[in-house]
Amino acid sequence: MPSASASRLAALRTLLQQHGLDGLIIPHSDEFLGEYTPPCAERLEWLTGFSGSAGMAVVLADSAAVFSDGRYITQMDQQVDGSCWERQHIYQTPPSAWLASKAPKAARIGYDARIMSSAELRPFTTLDGITLVPTDGNLTDILWTDRPAFPADPATIHPLVYAGESSQDKRTRLGQALAASGQAAAVLSDSASVAWLLNIRGTDIPCTPVVLAFAVLHADASVDLFLQASKLPADVKDWLGPDVRVHEPETLDSVLATLSGKTVGVDPASNAVWFTQTLTRHGATVQDSPDPCLLPKARKNATEQAGTRKAHLKDGIALCRFLHWLDTEEARGTTELQAATRLDAFRAEGADYRGESFPAISGAGPNGAVIHYRVTPESDRVLNANEVYLIDSGGQYPEGTTDVTRTVWTGPDAAPARLKETFTRVLRGNLRLGRARFPAGTTGHALDALARYDLWQAGLDYDHGTGHGVGSFLSVHEGPARISKNPSAITLQDGMILSNEPGYYEPGAYGIRLETLVLVHEKDGENRPGYAFETLTLAPFDRRLIDMAVLGEEDCQILDAYHAQIMEQIGPHLPEEARNWLKTACAPLKRA
User: Fold this and answer.
1) Residue limits of the Peptidase M24 domain (predicted)?
2) Is residue 351 in some structural domain?
């Protein structure tokens, strides 16, 4: 009997024939183009079985492929039926290159203009002999008969005590910038941008507190918001004020028509190509420009910076209780799922915990080598003695969003020498990046090698970025800044929160990742103004995996100071037994 994926692929091919198409592009995205999507938009998973948060599929009459990046290659191999789908690394074999090599001459390739950005579509537009055809609706949805409903939960207020700046002030500031650039308005599809701009939140996406909505920000600081009236309680409508005009989503086309003759900013990366096509059809002039909220949202204000410190204190208490629990007899024989549930329970015992910021990556032994491993009842395994356990998790609090990874040795025997050496090289990368000072104008690309250097000296590396931006009670993955091998024009600026997460993965054996969040802030000294990182995460590194001969004296001093800070800030909030454990975990390291 064919797999569900094979049957669905066959049905899709029949549908393509009926629509006069030779192929179809299926991205992992919804109309809002976010990394994380509601269940009703998980079309890629429904069709292929692949549940990663980044990917694409391309279907032709006699071949089909699924693409994702290095974080998900192992997961893709496990989830995708190789008998009917090729599994490709998206950077080694880009979807457009694969299509160019596989498509028949004069092929008509369909795509849904409502769920693909101009930037995502652009590589396909240059292919010789291929005609791109926007479909009437989404073809996958025709086959997905039991597709979940669109989220119905209401929007909520994000108070000024957490936001630190009123929506009116944000809109005025950004509206003036639009006017200065000659734009009458800008389209916002990123729900995190809409949430930040209007100081609202929601529960439409698991783990990400946003309400799914489009908005048009005008130069006069007014906003057209496209959101079902049923999702807008009276108190939220009052909070938004009279300058935010609320429309049903079905009216989007007609409201865009009122922009005829005006210049409208459209971010080609965060807005669906449908917006450009529709505005052009209505006689507007489309100007490609970044989402105006991206950079201001990334640069946390003083209130948000203070809030993230409070969030990380709460999170650190839960993390240290969890790490202590892992070392107790009670945790013996626990499984990956049970461990993730226990950590979530510790967080929930704190104040104002709003849930995970992403589903925890809880991987023991070989599962830890799957970079974005998602534990399921079928894959759940016991944390065995004398193996590596990796836990990557985060929490949502009204004050901020957290994301932290720790890798521990289960014991009771000593860890193997090679494992300790590799762990320490990863640790040195984290510490080296964390203590960096850099001048204004520095990009994350310029700093990435600091985290990889010690691994490179041993011929090792990792196939993912070193750091991503993090929101303020918003998405755990936030642009526009990043720390990565891939070049970026975005400089690191005061108030940005990023992750610092080097790693190493031995397929079939173990994974190591050490992640802390850092806050960029200005730092003057010796008449040399510049920037530095403030480490926000408060959780010790496992000393059982540290090779002192590899660590070195300078890193040892830095680590001792970090552990002393953890003991000072977290220790007073722990029960006595956990506090005693933390005292040992944070004690100065013994030199040779």
Assistant:
1) 308-522
2) yes
